[in-house]
Amino acid sequence: MELFNGRDLSGWRADGEHAWRVAASVQLQSEDDQQFSIEPGVGIFVNGDAGRTRDLRTEMEHGSCELHVEFCVPRGSNSGVYLMGQYEIQILDSWGTTESELKYGSCGGIYARWIAETRTPYDGAPPRVNASRPPCEWQEFHVLFHAPRFDAQGMKIAKARFERVTHNGIVIHENFECSGPTRGAWSEVDIPVGPLRLQGDHGPVAYRNVRLRPLD
C-alpha cells in the first residue's frame, strides 16, 4: 500500500505542531550544503526549512511487512526509519565513509540499544558495505521485516528480525535479530504492532515513494 499519496500528509501525524510539508523537490543551498532549498509543489515530503521538527508517523499500525522507502539528505544530515516505531534503520550522510569505519550509526545501520544509566550502546549492526550516494541524491531502502511474536499469554516467543535489508539495491543485512527495541523506540519492551515512524529532529530529510505490504 502507498503510505504517501504525493499531495498531502493524509494518514500521517505528529505529536503536536510540526513543520513537515509536501514539496516538489529539494536541492542543496548554494551558500550552505547542509540545508535544502525547497521547491513548492507536490511529490515529496520534507521536514521543513530548518530540518528539525517532530517525528512523523503513520496512523496505521503494522507488524511483519515488506517496506520500500526513498529518502534524500544534505551533507552531514541524519534521520531514521523506525519499523513499528521501535526498530530503527539509520539514515545518515555516509558518503565517503570507508568500510572499516562503518558502525551501527552509519547509513543503513540497525541502530543500537541503550543503557541509560551508563550511557552505553549495545547490540545494533553496521551495514555490510557502504552503499551510500552523495548528499542530495535520492536513495532507497527495501526491507523484509518480521515483528516479534507472542503466545496466547503474551509471552514473547520470537524476536523482531530483519530478514533482509537492501540499500540502493545492495544487501546490507540478512537475518538480523533485535534483542529488543533500539534506542529512541516508543516502548522499552517489544510490542506486537506499531506505526511506521520517520525521524524529523536530527537534520533536513525528504521522503517519497513510501510503500508497505503487510506480511501477517
Summed up, what is this model?
It is built from no helices and 16 strands. The protein is an all-beta fold and 216 residues long.
Structure explained in plain terms:
A 7-stranded antiparallel sheet has the order 2-3-16-5-10-13-14, with no helix packed on it. Strands 1-4-15-6-7 form a 5-stranded antiparallel sheet, with no helix packed on it. It has a two-stranded antiparallel sheet with strand order 8-9. The chain contains no helices and 16 strands. It starts with 11 loop residues before the first strand and ends with a strand. The protein has one domain: Jelly Rolls (Sandwich), CATH 2.60.120.560. By secondary structure, the protein is an all-beta fold.
- Structural category: mainly beta
| Principal-axes shape call | globular
What value does the average pLDDT take? 95
Major sheet: 7 strands, antiparallel
Approximately how much beta-strand content do the residues carry? over 45%
Radius of gyration: 17 Å
Indicate how many domains the architecture comprises: 1
What name does the CATH topology carry? Jelly Rolls
Report the helical percentage: under 10%
CATH superfamily: Exo-inulinase, domain 1
Which CATH C-level class is it?
Mainly Beta
For the largest sheet, list the strands in their spatial order.
Answer: 2-3-16-5-10-13-14
Count of helices? 0
Whole-Å distance between the termini?
A: 14 Å
